[in-house]
Design a protein that fits this description.
Blueprint lengths: L3 H17 L7 E3 H8 L3 H13 L3 E4 L3 E4 L4 H25 L2 H12 L6 H17 L4 H28 L2 H14 L3 H24 L9
Helix pairs in contact: 1-3, 4-6, 4-7, 4-8, 4-9, 5-6, 5-8, 6-7, 7-9, 8-9
Length: about 220
């Protein structure tokens, strides 16, 4: 019987390889070859691939071929137009519903020092936003946003890599959002979050369009 621990480990490793570009967008991979490279049997890999397909990171095709989903400007726009609305809603609700302990945690996460490694910084960003989702008082909204985050990780990583070189502008955004939540200012928390997400989308699109192999126009 497959243990949950092994299946989870295969999922996390495969997902990390996709996020970091070890398995780059558009790559076709044979499932058996990938399983051998990971040092596992095909069974835990298939379970991991089903999860990754639900997140939109891969496509499963005939003859056991795995296609790493390409990055496109169209998908970026589709995902971020939803995030702009739902993240701002969650932030406004958090300002009204967060406990004092939640407020303290959000403030600490906003002010933490940037990580040196992109994927680690991506996780720190996620922890901040998740703290807001968890304190918004709406479980369905938090669940939708968590799923949406999975779909946008690769796009967000593009911006994180850029910011680690040029400065973490998003950190100041987080601090301002956290302060608005602490002040119980729902309107400001929502507005600052909307601006933050919109600015991130614009910067990611700019970075993608500057790359020779970018698919931002598709």
């Amino acid at each position: 019987m497959l243990t949950a621990t092994k299946a989870e480990a295969v999922y996390l490793e495969t997902r990390a390889r996709i996020l970091t570009g070890v398995l780059p967008p558009g790559l076709n991979v044979n499932q058996e070859s990938l399983a051998a490279d990971l040092g596992v049997s095909i069974t835990p890999l298939r379970e991991a691939l089903r999860r990754l397909e639900m997140e939109g990171l891969i496509r499963l095709e005939a003859h056991r071929t795995v296609v790493i989903a390409p990055l496109t400007g169209r998908e970026l726009d589709e995902l971020y137009v939803i995030r702009i609305e739902l993240d701002s809603l969650a932030a406004g609700l958090a300002a009204s519903h967060a406990s004092e302990a939640d407020v303290a945690a959000i403030g600490q996460l906003a002010r933490q020092k940037p990580a040196r490694e992109p994927v680690a910084q991506l996780e720190r960003n996620r922890a901040f936003h998740r703290a807001i989702y968890a304190s918004c008082g709406n479980g369905a909204l938090a669940a939708y946003l968590d799923q949406l985050w999975d779909r946008t990780d690769r796009y967000r990583l593009i911006l994180v890599k850029q910011e680690l070189v040029g400065g973490m502008a998003s950190r100041q955004d987080h601090i301002e959002i956290a302060d608005a939540v602490a002040d119980r200012d729902a309107d400001s928390a929502a507005r600052l979050t909307r601006d933050h997400i919109a600015r991130s989308r614009k910067l990611i699109a700019t970075i993608m369009s500057s790359r020779p192999n970018a698919e931002a126009s598709q």
